[in-house]
Amino acid sequence: MSSATKIKGRQTMICIIMTALLVLLGCALFYYGKDHDIILDNKSVVIDGVCYEAIPYLTAAIDGNSETELEFYPDDRDMAKVSGPRHTIKIAVVNEETEEIVKTVERTLSLGISPSVMLSLPAVVAEASDVMLPLPKTNAPQDDGNSEENAEESM
């Protein structure tokens, strides 16, 4: 083998390695920089056969950010936008009359690459193992493309 062939092979190998490293860097940047929508829900819910009642009054802060602390009453739902795969949610159950904190719960969330998740705050406060709820749009009836035909038939 001539030295020119060795150099050409070495350059090809370096290009392949650099391309693989750039792809890995792109994947890491996507994973750690991805934005997520966290929907926080304070409604009565049944998860895995266990009923969790809505909490009369609570506050929730994501990643310890007290500036964006959210207040919830029964049947409230709010959304927070976050970046990155892991976040901590801190929930304080508050006595409405005395403004005294009755219970504080902190939970770490691993969101992966899902664009949005919905959490049941009563389940988080009860320290349930499963606190995720289906997103609101997933409960909608599926459109099979025959909605116009069905509407005409019903008239």
From TrEMBL:
It comes from the Bacteria. It holds the Pfam family DUF6672. The keyword Transmembrane applies. Keywords: Membrane, Transmembrane, Transmembrane helix. Residues 134-155 are annotated as: Disordered. Residues 145-155 have a biased composition (Acidic residues). The chain crosses the membrane at residues 12-33. This is Uncharacterized protein. It comes from Cloacibacillus evryensis.
